[in-house]
User: What shape does this take?
Amino acid sequence: MILGFGEIMMRLATEGRWRFRQSLPGKLDATWGGGEANVCASLAMLGQASRFVTALPRHAITEQLAASLRGLGVDTSRLLFTDKGRLGIYFLETGANQRGPIVIYDREGSSIALTGPEEYDFAGALEGVTWVHVTGITPALSQNAFASMLALVKLAKSRGIRVSCDLNFRKKLWNWKPGTKPQSLARECMVQILHEVDLLIGNEEDDKDVLGIEAEGTSIELGKINPGVMNP
Assistant: This one.
């Protein structure tokens, strides 16, 4: 079984490729979104046992969220429902041709950002688990979220459970430590987490922004990647 840990949010998107100014006031499509939950759902649909852990406020919307995950075959028995915080939201305007997508986050004060590691039953959540999957999005949310993820991966490794991590650098989110730039805070936190990681996933931009690793002769803008010598 694989265990995923991270934030899951409500995703409010414009219809088709309409822009916000074309859609509002009007309808937005509501679905769920979250990198770690997506991995769990995808694996479950492929027949792999998966379990998802996060912190959520308890109300009718999050109960339906949990039901949606269960309907896809994901084990939600270890979800933490709490009286503090809120369900995070993000708004999406899908891009078209050369126009890129627009994402607007409304996730400050979410339950997972306010919940510390001592509030989760990570020991119970790891029962029967062989892999833990996390991403660089979760520790970008808050000090609490970083501490919780670090505690989970450390406990997993102490039990001989393998850990995978998607760097997934989000510059908009790494802002919870005043006076520290997003890249610096990401590196400070992710270096601690990567000590416990067996499989690391990241593209050339993530490697450069988080770890300071860059291949000579690589140009993201020109689509050139040098698979040779990497300069840390």
